[in-house]
Amino acid sequence: MWTGPAANSEGEVNAAPVVSANAFISEIHYDNAGADVGEFIEITADAGADLGGYSLVLYNGNGGTAYNTVNLSGIVPDEVNGQGAVAFSISGIQNGSPDGVALVDPDGNVVEFLSYEGTLTATDGPAAGLTSTDIGVAETSSTPVGQSLQLINGVWTGPAANSEGQVNSGGNGGGPGESKFIHEVQGSGTDSPLVGQTVTVEAVVTGDFQNGDADTLRNLEGFYIQEEDTDSDADGSTSEGLFIFEDGNFLTDVNVGDVVQVTGTVEEAFGQTQLTVTSASDITVVSSGNPLPTTATVNFPVATVDDLESFEGMQVTIPDTLFVTEYFNLDRFGEVVLSSNGASNAPGTDGRLDQYAQFNSPDVAGFTAYQEDIAKRRIVLDDGQFIQNPDPIIHGRGGNPLSSNNTLRGGDTVNNLSGILGFGFGDYRIQPTAPVDFQATNPRPNAPEDVGGDLKVVSFNVLNFFTTLDVSGNPGSGPIGLDPRGADSQAEFDRQLDKLVTTLEIIDADIVGLIELENEFVSDQNGDGLVAINTLVDALNAKVGAGTYAAVNPGQTFVDVSDAISVGAIYKTSTVELAQGTSVEILDDSDLPGLGLNPGNAVFNGPSTNRAALAATFEEKATGEKVTVAVNHFKSKGSVSPGAGNTDAGDGAGNNNAIRLQGAQALDAWLDSDPTGSGDSDYLIIGDLNAYAKEDPITFLEGEGYTNVVDNPESAYSFVFDGQFGTLDYGLASTTLISQVTGATEWHVNADEPDALDYNLDFGRDPSLFDGTVPFRNSDHDPLIIGLDLTGGGGNSPTEINGTNRRDTLTGTEGDDIIKGFGSRDRITGGAGDDIIVGGRGSDILTGGDDNDTFVFEKILDRSDRITDFEVGADLLDFSGVFELSRYGSLTPFDDYIRVSQGNGRTFVQVDLNGDFGNRDRFRTFATLNGVIAADLTVDSFVL
Fold it and tell me: How far apart (Å, rounded) are the C-alpha atoms in residues 669 and 428?
């Protein structure tokens, strides 16, 4: 073989080329029916290999001591497929139970240590401290002369007619398969190029996940190995790690740091390349206590998810901070989903994943790109166990198991996560080799933030609170007797009720809208002896005081005409009461014709529709002021509702966008009709609308004058699905009510907590994980808490005054008015009261009059108006309708799209018509303000 460049040896005979040996024991004969003669051990190796320096050391099973050493010699002949066999005659091979032999290389390393009739641990010689591998077959005193034990295709067989000094059958010298480096087994693609082949690899154990060994918390039915650094290749696309699958058995005990030689069949299992072994003889511990190969560094986000394939089976460290973003499978499979920061984060959020439609208008191309992007930020942390319902659940904070007081919350973090990178069930996943030190980055909020005001209104999804237990033989629920959906046993029901009462006691609300409540009111319709809403009120009053809360009576047994769940409401009797002269009303399909709506399909009545809405007007006892609360539960994104537009369009809105929008349209029209007879325009829409903040149902209601009470809706959340956070639970205040909202908060006691801590006892869950004295994980949705200071701003419904598309002169009343000029050049005067003035198209002259007035510009053509008496600090300019256009994407529209200038004693308010389109600005004047100093006009003068 030509080599070099190297130091010259001019005039000297060059050294002979060194041929790799790949030697192994291939045949043994130690006992038969005749005299103890003719015994031998055969070595198979690569043709041309020099066996000089190799030795066979014979061991006695009684004490594990070496009793003979045979030094080998000779050049291996080329017999079959580049291999040859050399037999060494050895008299007196012991045949006790057990005895064995070690093959030792010229450097004194044990190549393999085999035994027959059992295993033994060597106490001296080169194999000292090693435990032999039992070949599984044996000879006896009755074995016929001329037979031996032979290795055929990596499996010891016999006794059979010997083939002393000849390569055994099987095409590989009888040996364990062609020796390969792990990077050759892995290849550069997703699947191994050697699938189905029998190969032998030698590498270092980096992850011990065997079943049946001393470590009971890491059980994947095998172990991971990785090439020593000196055996790694320079190809970054090939992995140096490999999973060894023992096929449900505990074959040969290995430990981290062992160098092992393993023979098995290359397979792809659930997308992971592995070597499957079926016999203890396929695994040989060559040496122990070796240093581990270098750990690979993997940075997140990755360039592409496929890049992780080149690290499959290897030790990895992720130096980036990772955030807990999903824990749905924590109790069932011990899994946590982690994510890194990235360009796709919603503004104002941490490194968790967000729902696309929470901060983006639904769009197919945008949603597709977003899903691809967040996949690069995502990795699964497994628990190193191939079992369901682990106990304990090892992933809690600080490297300690999960418990009620040692949770693991969404938004908690881990730095420098290390482990073995595997693949399974569709995801790349880290199998930890040590406890994971999660940091409590997202502390538990023991109490909700103060929302101010004199009244607190709460939207609370109670996660299927049913008094009818979901057990065989119990009656159905609701008007058509559907299966109950709540607790499966009395123990579960008691736990669920405890949590809900604890939570409600801490919130101390005045009005609570309940969602996912068993659909049964007024009377016990199904005969189980209980009514869910009354049971909840009774339990709450037992804790906070008799008569503290009362349930809203809807006046009929079922609120929803077709479902097992419905909405309901309770209230604190000392602070509010149902307003006299009003009625509790329910919105269902029977109301639609009277509202002028004909959607062509069921909207509230029937399977896979929205649940009927419930509205009640409450009067604050201290002030006599009123507010109407409408409790809602729109159709989920699950099963597809009949009707056009309900199939997932792939734009981020999921299933059933159309029927949710129809529900929003019906709700808006219904509230416009003052269904309860309150005579007051203060409306608060609450409930689970099953739509994220930029989806059609929400933007429609906002376009009709309702305002989301939560600050920064794009970064808000109340629910997590598929590891992505967003808002499904809302408070939307009417135009007259929004100024009376003092604050709002989503109390993150549920969405951030693992469901392992909830009331369920399914799958043998450890009951001690539950603590009914704390509010955490009382449901799967976070409660939304809203503060109100009812000042009478709503008063009676404002007077609506509408112009025409011709020139109009419109004058308001002495109260609150909504005046719309529509088209042409109008002259509008509001007069006294808090007026809303919409000039519409045309150059209008607008005068607000006394009190606080809002001048509304709904569309981009509603401009060139002159306002004669704008008062900074009292009046407002409303451009929110204009900035709903897709060309305006900034979160700071006042800074980015509005220009204010001064001239001739007037202030000019201009808007960039191009917005984010194009490369240049195109400002046009929307309003000219008489007598206003431009510098006094700030963002606080605008509704944006």
Answer: 49
Nearest Cα neighbor of 628 from 636, 640, 620, 638 is 620
Nearest to residue 334, comparing CAs of 407, 276, 396, 278? 396
Average of pLDDT values for 743-771?
96
Cβ contact 489:761 at 8 Å: yes
pLDDT tens figures, 893-918 = 999 999 999 998 899 999 999 999 88
C-alpha–C-alpha distance, residues 319 and 300, integer Å? 8
Count of alpha carbons within 13 angstroms of residue 373, beta-carbon side: 17
- 439-450 b/e with 16+ CB inside 10 Å = b? eebbeeeeebee
Indicate whether 370 pLDDT > 70. Answer: yes
- Measured in degrees and rounded to the nearest 5, phi and psi for residue 618 equal -110, 140
d(CA 684, CA 736): 10
Which value, in Å, is the radius of gyration of the alpha carbons in the chain?
A: 38
- 550/783 Cα distance (integer angstroms): 19
For the chain, report the end-to-end CA distance as a whole number of angstroms: 80
Residues 6+ apart with CB under 8 A from 904: none
Tokens for 858? Answer: 């709904």
The owner of tokens 């639609």 is 592
Looking at residue 669, its pLDDT comes to: 97
pLDDT tens for 806-825 read 889 999 998 899 999 988 89
Strand bridging mode 827-829 / 809-811: parallel
Position 796 scores a pLDDT of 56
Mean pLDDT, rounded, for 460-481? 93
To 10 degrees, the CA torsion angle through 229, 232, 238, 239? -40
Per-residue pLDDT, 22 = 84
Q: What angle do CA 611, 616, 619 make, to 5 degrees?
A: 160
Report residue 602 as tokens.
Answer: 């069921």
- Which of these, 129, 136, 186, 182, lies nearest to 156 by C-alpha position? 136
Strands 99-104 and 110-116: antiparallel
Strand residues in 817-897 grouped as ranges (E): 817-820, 827-829, 836-838, 845-847, 854-856, 865-867, 876-878
User: Do you know the residue count of the chain?
Assistant: 944
Give Cα 293 to chain centroid, integer Å. 32
Q: How far apart are CA 525 and CA 518, in angstroms?
A: 11
